[in-house]
Amino acid sequence: MDFDLTPEQESIRKLARDFADREIAPGARERDRAEKFPADVLRKMAPVGFLGGPIPEQYGGMGVDYISHAIITEEIGRADSSVRTTLSVQISLVELTILKWGSEEQKRTWLPRLCKGEVIACFGLTEPAVGSDATRLQATAQNDGEGWVLNGRKTWISNGSVAKLALVFANADPSKGHKGITAFLIDREKSPYGSQAIHGKLGLRSSDSSELILDNVRVPDSARLGEIGEGFKIAMSALDSGRYSVASGAVGTAQAAIDASVAYATQREAFGKPIAGHQLVQEMISDMVVDTEAARLLVWRAGDLKNKGKPNTRETSIAKLFATEMAQRVTDNAIQIHGGYGFSDEFPVERFWRDARVNRLYEGTTQIQKLIIGRFTTGIDAIG
Ligand code: CAA
User: Fold this and answer.
1) Looking at beta carbons, which pairs linking 300-309 to residues 24 or more positions away fall under 8 Å?
2) 233 lines ligand 1 (CB under 6 A)
3) pTM score of the predicted model
4) Alpha-carbon distance 279 to 276, whole Å?
5) By the 8 A CB rule, do 105 and 222 touch?
6) Which residue(s) pair with 209 in the sheet?
7) What is the C-alpha to C-alpha distance for residues 141 and 151, in angstroms, rounded to an integer?
8) Which atom of ligand 1 is nearest to the CA of 240?
9) 7-120: which CATH topology?
10) Does residue 282 have a pLDDT over 90?
């Protein structure tokens, strides 16, 4: 096993870091204050290729490997988790899912436009009454002979209001339980549906989180992704990609918290010397570094399996669980090091802490990751 990055991966890290420092980080506080969706950032990001990192070049992407994908996601997460979330949904939940499950026509129709940022996409799984137990979706899809009619409500859908493409899961045969769940690619221009943005969030304030309102939304059969009844499997495989991206982003947030804390602690003085010279502050910094580096290696292990095309649900859940919990610890320590200043948005660490919170909830809570890991370890299913 080689822990060195290849020259290509190093140059991708540099490209992503320079872009994030120049184009993303400077506006993050103002976007957060104004709850302003980062459309301008996405417009600049598209020509660099970051909206289609792991998508093959033939479909308009950069064709990078999964470690590089994690590195780009980490660097963007270091600058702004709201931008990173938008990207995680676009690439990991939607693009990679179309790449894996889509027909050639669906890939050619959607992937180049998604990679160019002409189309922003969302992933419609969660419903007002259904979060962790995704097998029990209440949204329905009825085939009336001419196509499908979708009804239901979705909530906490990242990119929901701005998306022109919605990957939506609905049950085509509720009598079959999760084996009736079917996936659809809804082209919003051709099959309009409603949305309502959610405001007043604790964190990720400049990302878009919305409800989707599906009232008799008609889609043709060609909008179906995969087979009838294959939707739950498609959703789970999408989450194997999405959780990897969330874990990578959490590593970026933690790294940002370390960088800010070191900058602060080496110039702020107390008791006659920089606070970085006090042992208890160094202990916090060292805990933050160990946590972050351990999480990064867990992410890269899952990425290595993805590169090899091997099963990685267990390793992705371990990485997601550890990285998201550690980012909360690390950002909390960062506030502690900043003292009272850490409690104000004059410094970025309070935003890092607020933004870190949702990682432990979305794309499968910490508890769901533990149940997945526990099931792999014991062979006993404690879910449901
Ligand atoms: N890949 C492919 N198929 C999979 C899979 C995977 N990783 N995991 C499970 N499956 C398949 C199983 O093989 C099984 O297939 P069969 O029915 O053919 O046997 C089927 O799916 C059912 O699987 P389980 O028995 O594992 O289902 P379960 O009910 O025991 O557990 C769960 C499922 C793990 C709890 C799952 O419901 C889950 O992950 N819940 C959390 C939901 C979640 O993460 N939501 C996030 C919302 S998206 C979001 O947050 C996006 C956003 O906008 C921010």
Assistant:
1) 300/67, 300/70, 302/244, 302/247, 303/65, 303/66, 303/67, 303/69, 303/70, 303/244, 304/66, 304/67, 306/66, 306/244, 307/65, 307/66, 307/67
2) yes
3) 0.97
4) 8
5) yes
6) 158
7) 7
8) 7
9) Butyryl-Coa Dehydrogenase, subunit A; domain 1 (1.10.540)
10) yes
